[in-house]
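Researcher: Sequence recovery benchmark, item below. Answer with residues only.
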């Protein structure tokens, strides 16, 4: 969308070709070295993938986007690589789903994107990374790698574990309780759907800082349990103490929540949704994408809703409002049923 040629490579070629079909770039290899190589593989593979790319002279500059920064840098150093053309980065935006079908063009808009240059980093690579961040309309934040890892222990890694632990309460819960799930639990547990293998890698690269935050949380949990037990007491003074304890934790939560910044940049473009009914058969998604391509319409985001207990689903295609009518008309002409 910003006129940059993007070459995609993945050790699973189907993933690269799906991303290319969605408009992310080309899965053909570049003819020579590119400006910037962006390594977006699971954290445990980052250093080896970077070292391999550097050995092959794939680019002038190299960055990675892994969720942890200290470990990959130290591994790269241990592999004997020249660290000058490398800068570790981390965009603070993502989804609980992985793979190219979960991608969206505006994911990074207005989000912080951390850069961890050192004194030895090549200025030209730093500028290339800044240019990429600007093109994605994210907000650059410079930090040192270990400071970054301590910060994300608090704002990303602990929330992931807490969300998973709350969701894990539902594993054995009675069906009558589960049926009552409303928006509150949906908000708290969205990221509990994340890929466990990816998160084991992230947490394995940042165990100390996450354990420190969790032990503070454990102390709060213990006090909250005591306060709730006091609320069950027959003694009026104990009950009052319990209510004060609970109010204290809720008020501290209000104060903490107020510190969560809004998006820095403009809100992402408002897309129009064209919803297409599909049956659970192989190749349906590929046909819809091909038909959208035929209409000359760019798909900005995709969501798939499976109907419970039925072999059918709803594919929500997010497109620029000006393209929605063209897309809808083409899809109907090609035999699809729409829900708008
Ligand atoms: N998902 C998020 O929310 C999020 C946000 C910010 C940063 N990150 C970081 O981005 C990176 C990728 O995460 P993702 O969510 O995009 O995962 P993903 O599973 O969608 O993508 C990872 C891709 O790497 C490929 N891969 C694995 N090993 C490889 C190798 N050795 N060589 C080449 N390709 C290889 C996989 O086939 C896969 O397509 C991770 O380091 C993660 O920490 C993720
Ligand atoms: O919102 C989500 O689903 C995320 O995966 C986001 C999130 C986060 O914690 O903010 C998760 C891990 C990444 O390293 C960066 C972003």
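Model:
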């Amino acid at each position: 969308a910003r006129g940059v040629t993007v070459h995609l490579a993945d050790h699973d070629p189907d993933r690269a070709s799906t991303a290319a079909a969605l408009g992310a770039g080309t899965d053909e290899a570049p003819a020579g070295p590119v400006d910037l190589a962006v390594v977006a593989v699971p954290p445990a593979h980052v250093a080896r993938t970077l070292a391999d790319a550097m050995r092959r002279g794939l680019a002038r500059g190299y960055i990675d986007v892994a969720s942890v920064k200290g470990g990959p840098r130290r591994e790269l150093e241990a592999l004997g690589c020249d660290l000058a053309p490398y800068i570790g980065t981390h965009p603070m935006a993502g989804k609980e789903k992985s793979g190219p079908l979960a991608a969206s063009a505006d994911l990074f808009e207005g989000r912080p994107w951390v850069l961890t240059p050192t004194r030895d980093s090549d200025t030209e690579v730093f500028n290339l990374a800044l240019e990429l961040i600007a093109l994605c309309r994210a907000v650059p934040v410079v930090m040192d790698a270990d400071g970054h890892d301590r910060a994300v222990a608090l704002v990303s890694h602990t929330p992931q574990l807490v969300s998973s632990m709350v969701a894990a309460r539902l594993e054995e819960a009675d069906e009558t309780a589960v049926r009552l799930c409303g928006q509150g639990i949906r908000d708290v547990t969205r990221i509990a759907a994340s890929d466990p293998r990816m998160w084991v890698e992230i947490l394995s690269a940042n165990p100390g800082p996450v354990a420190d935050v969790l032990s503070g949380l454990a102390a709060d949990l213990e006090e909250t349990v005591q306060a709730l037990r006091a609320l069950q007491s027959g003694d009026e003074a104990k009950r009052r103490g319990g209510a004060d304890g609970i109010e204290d934790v809720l008020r501290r939560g209000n104060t903490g929540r107020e510190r969560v910044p809004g998006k820095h940049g403009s809100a992402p473009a408002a897309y129009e949704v064209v919803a297409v009914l599909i049956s659970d058969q192989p190749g349906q998604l590929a046909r819809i994408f091909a038909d959208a391509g035929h209409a000359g319409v760019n798909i900005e985001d995709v969501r798939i809703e499976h109907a419970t207990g039925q072999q059918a689903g709803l594919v929500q295609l997010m497109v620029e409002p000006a393209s929605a009518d063209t897309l809808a008309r083409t899809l109907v002409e090609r035999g699809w049923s729409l829900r708008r």
